[in-house]
Specification:
By secondary structure, this protein is α+β, with helices and mostly antiparallel strands. It has 4 domains: 23-96; 110-189, Arc Repressor Mutant, subunit A (Orthogonal Bundle); 197-331, Jelly Rolls (Sandwich); 339-411, Phage tail protein beta-alpha-beta fold (3-Layer(bab) Sandwich), CATH 3.55.50. The protein is built from 12 helices and 18 strands. α1 runs parallel beside α3 (72-96), α4 (110-127) packs across α7 (159-177) and α5 crosses α7. The protein starts with 22 loop residues before the first helix and ends with a strand. Residues 27-92, 126-172 form the RNA polymerase sigma-70 region domain.
Length: 412
């Protein structure tokens, strides 16, 4: 069943005889209205600005690829809606501290582990009976912990319709199980704790290293928070923010899984890096192969497809783009582990985003045209965002203003 348009979301541009505007032009016109709405919905003007900055970056990428968009205005609304939903999900994960590990699990025994596995299998079978629309609603409600209002916002339907879909799904699942079940992600129900549970947090300018009992290692870069746990069936990491490299000890019976708010990466014995930001997650593979899947919101069903990423490749997972594998220069991409950021023609917006991931001081490129401008060849200290701001301020027509721990950069 197709989604209904969100409130106030236009359904067609076909009656407009004028030449079609680009998505960036439409976004610039609507940005003041989006800022007012998001400030009211998110409760903070700073959060609203963060969401709109991410939307601007996403739309820039779309324009660079010259994608054909049938309804650009509706596309902009959908991009803003998905970005706001991702922002809520990520903020809730941070507030919960442990994200989806928030509920402490009791000490596991072999008997408990077997019982958990049976319950998980029964739950999975029950969920297979739920129609697609109800399944999406119940997943957003319980797996992502969204309210009915937020489920409606995410799906582009009314709150009452969202609540009705959730109730319908609950009835189907209860009937399938013939018991009251805990409506939460299946992996959470089966993730019994075997005693190996770690929280790893690296502050700005700090690198952290963790060796697991199976011999796997995790190297976390500055401004990174993650949770790690192990069960008889799998090894699991929840990357809440930042970036980390995982060197996985081979164990074909226990896959190594890394999840962010919008992505799942699964490996057996390999080495790969995962970065997470408000608008996307990036997986870079140094050795072996990693299966990457999208989770959470997506505009089109076909973009849920899994991809296999091999050594020397990366894949970027965002709300509005299909999963696309690219070849990368590994030494340059991973120079962050030595404290450096290499720029070789990326856009100003992309380089600013790299600094923002790693430092308390945030660089906000307020002008979309400036954000799209290409940089030169730079090698800068990753913990020194001021060095990049200095390079920008030296460019003709660039204005830099400061507001607390935020630096705003725009064109005259």
């Amino acid at each position: 069943m197709p989604k209904s348009p969100a409130p106030d979301e236009p359904t067609s541009d076909s009656n407009d005889a004028r030449p079609p505007k680009s998505v960036l032009e439409i976004f610039s016109e609507l940005r003041p209205d989006f800022e007012r709405r998001l400030t009211r919905q998110l409760g903070s003007r700073e959060d609203a600005e963060d969401v709109l900055q991410n939307v601007s970056i996403a739309l820039l990428k779309v324009e660079k690829k010259h994608q054909t968009i049938q309804n650009p205005r509706a596309f902009v609304y959908r991009t803003v809606r998905n970005a706001a939903t991702d922002h809520r999900r990520k903020r809730r994960t941070r507030e919960n501290g442990e994200g989806q590990f928030a509920q402490e699990q009791p000490q596991s025994t072999p008997e408990n582990a077997a019982s958990d596995a049976l319950n998980a299998q029964q739950t999975l079978q029950a969920f297979e009976q739920v129609p697609p629309e109800e399944y999406q609603a119940i997943s957003l409600r319980f797996s992502d912990d969204l309210t009915h209002d937020e489920v409606g916002f995410e799906m582009g339907i009314s709150r009452n319709r969202a609540a009705k879909l959730v109730r319908s799904a609950v009835k189907i699942v209860k009937k399938g199980l013939k018991i009251l079940v805990c409506l939460c992600a299946v992996w959470l129900g089966s993730s019994s704790n075997q005693g190996e549970n770690h929280t790893l947090k690296a502050d700005a300018g700090e690198w952290r290293h963790l060796t697991l009992t199976d011999g796997s290692t995790i190297q976390a870069m500055p401004r990174t928070t993650l949770k790690q746990s192990a069960t008889p069936a799998e090894r699991h990491v929840r990357l809440i923010e930042g970036e980390a490299t995982f060197k996985v000890a081979k164990d074909s019976k226990r896959p190594f899984i890394v999840e962010t708010y919008n992505m799942r990466a699964e490996a057996v014995g390999t080495e790969f890096s995962v970065q997470v930001s408000d608008h996307d997650s990036v997986v870079i593979v140094m050795e072996g192969t990693v299966k990457v899947s999208r989770i959470g919101s997506t505009p089109e069903p076909e973009t849920f497809s899994d991809v296999l990423v091999s050594a020397g490749q990366e894949v970027r997972v965002s709300a509005m783009e299909p999963l696309e594998i690219k070849d990368v220069d590994l030494p340059r991409k991973l120079d962050w582990s030595q404290g450096w950021l290499n720029s070789q023609g990326e856009t100003i917006g992309e380089v600013a985003d790299q600094f923002n991931r790693r430092n308390r001081l945030q660089i906000l490129i307020d002008d979309p045209q400036l954000a799209q401008r290409r940089t030169g060849l730079y090698r800068l200290r990753i913990d020194d965002p001021e060095s990049f701001v200095k390079l920008l301020s030296d460019q003709e027509g660039v204005i830099v203003t400061r507001e607390g721990n935020r630096i705003h950069v725009r064109l005259e």
